[in-house]
Amino acid sequence: MAQISTVSGIDKLNATLQSMVTSFSTNQSLQATTMIGRSVLAPGSGLQLQNGTAQGGVDLPQAADKVVVSIRDGSGQIVHKVDLGAQAAGVLGFQWDGVFDSGAGAAPGSYSFAVEAVQGGKKIDATALALGLVSGVTQSKDGVALKVNGMGSVALSDVKQVM
Q1: Angstrom distance (rounded) from CA 22 to CA 8
Q2: How far is Cα 7 from Cα 125, in angstroms, rounded to an integer?
Q3: E-assigned strands of the chain?
Q4: Which residues contact 123 (CB under 8 A, 6 or more apart)?
Q5: How far apart are CA 34 and CA 49, in angstroms?
Q6: Is 130 exposed, middle or buried, given 0-12, 13-18 or 19+ CB atoms closer than 10 A?
Q7: Which of 85, 95, 117, 118 has its CA 20 to 30 A from that of 31?
Q8: What is the mean pLDDT of residues 115-133?
Q9: Does pTM surpass 0.90?
């Protein structure tokens, strides 16, 4: 009898936990809808040059003596480098004015970028962060995701900064 009572108690506990998980997930989706129309930084290397400016970001796991962003055109050629200098650990943004290193103006459109960060002469793993506008929210078995223009579906947990 004691074993049957224990199994019954575990079943009730599991049902209660499942109900809490469902409620939490629904709440998270509702809260995520407040991000629609806002820009977010999330892992990615795309840059959109519009109106003479493009923005992106970098996530540094530790402080760096030097951080350089290399901007590439559609063929993968480096067209401009942005030297961000020494930076503390964390998320930081950068802006490109749409001017190539040659001094020529860049055409509006899609570009990409890579990040190089060095601390004490050693390369550190920095994550490139793309900027995108949130246009919707989806929920799946994997959790809540944001529909971000130019980036597709981005897990809510991957968003590093909301602007």
Answers
A1: 21
A2: 48
A3: 39-43, 46-49, 54-60, 64-72, 78-87, 90-96, 109-119, 122-124, 127-140, 143-148, 152-155, 161-162
A4: 116, 117
A5: 26
A6: buried
A7: 95
A8: 96
A9: no
DSSP-derived secondary structure for 32-63: HGGGTT-EEEEE--EEEEBTTBEEEEEEESS-
Rounded CA Rg of the chain: 22
Residue 32 is predicted with a pLDDT of 73
CA 59 vs CA 33, 34, 129, 130, 157: distances in Å: 25, 24, 7, 11, 14
pLDDT (tens digit, 9 = 90+) per residue, 24-34?
666 666 677 78
- Average pLDDT on 104-126 reads 95
Work out the angle at residue 119's Cα, subtended by the Cα atoms of residues 60 and 113, and round it to the nearest 5 degrees: 50
Beta bridge partners of 104: none
Which residue, among 157, 118, 112, 150, has the nearest Cα to 134 in the 3D structure? 150
Six-digit token pair at 109?
């459109």
Cβ(59)–Cβ(73) below 8 Å: no
- What is the C-alpha separation between 84 and 108, in angstroms, rounded? 23
